[in-house]
Specification:
The structure is a single chain. By secondary structure, the chain is α/β, with parallel strands linked by helices. The protein is built from 16 helices and 26 strands. The strands form 8 sheets. Strands 3, 4, 5, 6, 7, 8, 23 and 24 form an 8-stranded mixed sheet that branches. The protein has a 5-stranded parallel sheet with strand order 10-19-11-12-13. A hairpin with a 4-residue loop joins β7 and β8. The protein is globular, with a radius of gyration of 26 Å.
Amino acid sequence: MSVVDSNNEGFTGTDAHAVNGKLPGADAHYDLVVVGAGPAGLAAALEAAANGASVLLVDEHPVSAAQMGNDVPYWFGGRMTGAVAAKARMIEQVFMAEPLFEQAFDAGIDVQLGVYAWGLWRNRANLGALPEAMLGLADEERSWTVGFKAIVLATGARDLALAFDGWAQPGVMGAQGLYALLTRYDAFAGRRLVVLGSGDLALDTAQLALDKGLEVAALVEVADAPQGDAAKAAALQAAGVPIRCASVIRGAPSGIDGVRAAVIGPVSGEGPGETLECDTICMAVGVVPAIELLDVAGGRIVTDSARGGHVPQALAGMALPDVFIAGDCAGLGHGRDAAAAQGRAAARQALGLDVATPELAANETDRLAYRQAWLRALVAATPDTVHVCQCEEVSRADLLGVQPPQYLARPEKLGCRSLETLLHDGPPDQEQIKRLTRACMGACQARRCREQVGMLMAMGANLPIEQAPRAGWRAPVRPLALKVLADWDEAEAMREGWDVWFGIPTQWTPYRDIGTEREAMHREALGGNMHL
């Protein structure tokens, strides 16, 4: 690596401490790695194996009880039974819940369950020292990397969370979390639900609950009419499930095990509230494409109202050279068969085979407008003291007032600061707000607050959500215990010069070398004379 010191004209040399060629390679290698064992991921893995490729299929389910407690990857809301702590039983349960796993094993696919994908790195602009593209993986005990010729991200979608009074207690959860506990895990602890929303997601969630022998007290919808398939809505109503339109949740009274009821009332704010007894409130207003790995790999992310917000620019297929996407992570959401078709097409494209591109189209519904209607109704119906960020205890008032959380000191001079004052510098920047308020900096990695914080900022700035800068993801994109990273270390060749910041000219000379022959050596070899 050649370096030029702009402060010392004429100096050009070779940086002996550059990391190029010194980073260790991956621990294992495959022709194709597939992340996510849903319909798209399984179809991709099976298609690749059928064409002779060596395939690794990883899926984080069953996630540990600790991760579930952080609402990762779904909003589980503390409504899982104690069975989730039995890892071996959960692996068996997850395996039995998906018949295609048996086909995958028979096809010679390396299937690894309970394994988190937490980072994806590839050489690109400003990152050129990697020996190969690598995926970071971890379980509860260790972390490792795998290399690949191509990778398919079939990471699905996660829950959209919106705050209301009482939402931080056990029993408030998302539709994805409920679906997983009822199907993959068979470990749901609730009995009677109130479902928020009336789109197809909410209607399907309520029907699944009924099919599993649960009670559904009502669906609650802020719009004047049900938003989903009319036949599905009619079937629920015929089964005795009311759909309360033009209504919003005002709060969730607490009991010994969390939620004991939902208080709803008219969106207009007029009239008394109605109390619906329940032990679970399931938010089914929308889901969010899981773009974390693609984002950290440098993929192009855009805002698309019809696809659910921040999504890959590509509808499906190749998102980056050797990085392909399929299924709900693209925000298309057309069901299992469509996801499987996308998975097969992505695998064939990744292997350089002929492929008939599946018909791709986004939902015509403006999903962001629907979510913002819900947010406006909740803002009007609930106090500003509600925490929009549970982990860091940031209230809605403090977020819009750009105040530090309650547990930090609040200097008097911060009293004049607000979102309005920040707008003089341009559109509200979620990364900046994060640093000023600590919103979105908690253990859930903003899965419960990222989207609503962005929408609140856009609302406060009177801007379309598309014009508000989004917050990016950084590895690790899953919470990792320090013990799983404890045995990671630099290679010996890297360690030789780490204390001089890889020998970049004009940076610094270690204190122990100042006044010694080594200081002169640094100045001569590196062209710098700066001390810290």
